[in-house]
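Supplementary Text 2. Reproducibility record for the structural model of the 336-residue chain.

All settings were left at their defaults, and a single model was retained for analysis rather than an ensemble. We include the record here because the model underlies the residue-level annotations in Supplementary Table 4.
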Amino acid sequence: MIGIETLDEFIIRKQDELPYTKGELSRLLRDIGLAAKVVNREVNKAGLVDILGTTGAINVQGEEVKKLDVYANTRFIAALKLGGQCSGIASEETKDIIVFDDEISKNAKYIVAIDPLDGSSNIDVNVSVGTIFSIYRQVSSMGPPTLQDFLQKGSEQVAAGYIVYGSSTMLVYTTGHGVNGFTLDPSIGEFCLSHPDMQTPKSGKIYSINQGYFVSFPEPVKQYIRYCKQEDKATNRPYSLRYIGSMVADIHRNLISGGIFIYPPTKEAPRGKLRLLYECNPISFIVEQAGGRASDGYKRILDIEPKELHQRTPIFIGSEEMVLKAEEFISDYPSA
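Retained model, structure tokens:
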């Protein structure tokens, strides 16, 4: 396949750009790619096997656990443990951190925060879902990782990415040297470079928000939505509302086409709903590396100091000019 570069080949070629232990991080990224292929296989045949629906359990987030949530979580944990380059995981599906203290992982230098199946409520109706991951260097010098290893600011990430399981399956990631996208070629079972050096437009015509909660939004957010819906040819308004309900899918579309994704605070969730460590931080790292912007409305997402493993935050993310405009509307609104 002349001219086609696989994910493994790309990672090896680019490993001189990686910080710290180049070989270990390269192998860790490849382990994630392998697990993504396995999860993709199950997502694509979900309607043919007993993997749809809920387990009957409620996770730490207070949400119903889907069977595919459990499957994806298990597969990523197994792949990262077997690979030996990861010393511990923080997952949306588990209350506490998972520590690998076996022989194969005793010298591992990295930890991973992961949302194994973002948007899983959509899986039963065949809508795009995804995986989000974030990689940090373990900062504690001796022994297995502790909670403090995971409570690092997003600016300390050494790599982050997402996989979107849609009409085609794509893996998009960054190590702080731009963003590259890889599409899974099912004929050879490999992720192949399809979107090199991804750059998001400075502005766009799409705003993504769950407008059904409009009455619960802070007034400045309501004002920004009204702004998006107003007609003004000079600024290409009105914008189009596009909301899938899977952060990965909404972000992926806006990253390519331009737009803003908003999950603001509401009366019911005054601290926001999306999780900082394994949703907002990795996605913000990617979007910033592609030339976009991400904030909680007042400050950069990647500068937020985490206090809890499952900490939540509002987020305004996407094309730089659109996020800056949204921040103008809320800049005078007192921070919670």
